[in-house]
């Protein structure tokens, strides 16, 4: 048996064990993005605030029971049609509308009322929106070491089966046609402790 085959078997066993631990409906939802309201652990948002020495003014995709800033927009407010401001935190829906949310972030980042936007999304550098929206417009991309535990409510929770990244927009920088975005975009690794990636009971 080759080392590659052993690695594949270990991966399959681990995936099976994860599926057994997680509630079946939660497992399917995390895989299919059927539900779009998975909440970020508050401890991670606090970790980000401490790490970057900022305080978030607005949570642009929140609910009345789950918001990471004193001011927030809920699904009823429809953040896509609102004006953002200050230091913005956003964990947007991960489904097909993610590209639309990125367009909104790019637009809002050019407003003089917005200081910065911190966006937590799945790390998918093979996607069209990563190369056409994030690369030309973001200032920093942090590849996060470790997986998150997301939660929808007190009963539904699960470990993400995908890596995550933190995309940071600062100051609404616009690149000209002859300017390479790679010259100023910074790629880094962020290593939050496990307690910052889990929900506290």
Gist of the model:
The protein has five helices and nine strands.
Task: Give the helices and strands, then pairings.
Layout lengths: L2 H19 L2 H9 L9 H11 L5 E2 L11 E2 L13 E5 L7 H12 L4 E9 L5 H10 L2 E5 L4 E3 L5 E3 L4 E7 L15 E5 L11
Parallel strand pairs: 1-2, 1-3, 3-4, 5-9
Antiparallel strand pairs: 4-8, 5-8, 6-7
Polypeptide structure, described:
It contains five helices and nine strands, in the order H-H-H-E-E-E-H-E-H-E-E-E-E-E. It is an alpha/beta fold and 201 residues long. It has one domain: Rossmann fold (3-Layer(aba) Sandwich), CATH 3.40.50. The radius of gyration is 18 Å and the shape is globular. It starts with a helix and ends in an 11-residue tail after the last strand.
Describe the main β-sheet briefly: 7 strands, mixed
State the CATH architecture. Answer: 3-Layer(aba) Sandwich
**Number of separate helices:** 5
Calculate the terminal CA-CA distance, rounded to whole Å. 43 Å
Order of helices and strands: HHHEEEHEHEEEEE
CATH topology: Rossmann fold
Overall geometric form: globular
Percent strand equals 15-25%
Give the structural class: alpha/beta
Q: How many domains in all?
A: 1
The value of Rg in angstroms is: 18 Å
Strands across the major sheet, in which order?
2-1-3-4-8-5-9
Number of strands: 9
Low-confidence stretches: 3-36, 175-180
Helix content: 25-40%
What's the CATH class, please? Alpha Beta
- Overall pLDDT: 75
């Amino acid at each position: 048996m080759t080392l590659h085959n052993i690695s594949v078997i270990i991966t399959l066993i681990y995936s099976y064990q994860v599926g057994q631990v997680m509630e079946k409906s939660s497992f399917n939802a995390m895989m299919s993005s059927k539900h779009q309201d998975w909440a970020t652990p508050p401890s991670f948002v606090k970790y980000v605030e401490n790490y970057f020495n900022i305080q978030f003014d607005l949570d642009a995709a929140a609910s009345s029971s789950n918001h990471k800033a004193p001011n927030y927009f809920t699904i009823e407010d429809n953040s896509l049609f609102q004006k953002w401001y200050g230091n913005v935190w956003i964990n947007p829906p991960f489904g097909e509308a993610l590209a639309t949310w990125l367009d909104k972030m790019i637009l809002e980042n050019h407003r003089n009322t917005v200081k910065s936007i911190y966006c937590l999304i799945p790390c998918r550098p093979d996607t069209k929106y990563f190369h056409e929206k994030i690369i030309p417009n973001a200032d920093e991309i942090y590849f996060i070491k470790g997986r998150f535990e997301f939660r929808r409510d007190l009963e539904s929770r699960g470990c993400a089966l995908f890596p995550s990244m933190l995309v940071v927009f600062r100051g609404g920088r616009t690149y000209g046609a002859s300017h390479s975005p790679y010259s100023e975009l910074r790629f880094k690794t962020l290593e939050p402790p496990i307690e910052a990636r889990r929900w506290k009971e």
